[in-house]
């Protein structure tokens, strides 16, 4: 049990250290996937488009079919996290 708790803490810390880590499951390691068959391909977006869309999801001003999924995903992201995601994957 102790090992499970330690491993969980390490994995949680790694996810917080890399804000893009939680995006990978749906968008792919390089932003190459159409998430849930509906999203834009992130690697084709500019850094500014990524920033604008993530901030829009966060404040409720952006989104179509993915809004219900993305709003809780971005709720805990800081502006620095959003910038880091855009830098990692945007053009």
Automatic annotation (TrEMBL):
Residues 1-17 form the signal peptide. This is C-type cytochrome. Residues 8-91 form the Cytochrome c domain. The lineage of its organism: Bacteria, Pseudomonadati, Campylobacterota, Epsilonproteobacteria, Campylobacterales. InterPro entries: Cyt_c-like_dom (IPR009056), Cyt_c-like_dom_sf (IPR036909). The keyword Metal-binding applies. GO terms for molecular function: electron transfer activity; heme binding; metal ion binding. PROSITE patterns: CYTC (PS51007). Pfam families: Cytochrom_C. Keywords: Heme, Iron, Metal-binding, Signal.
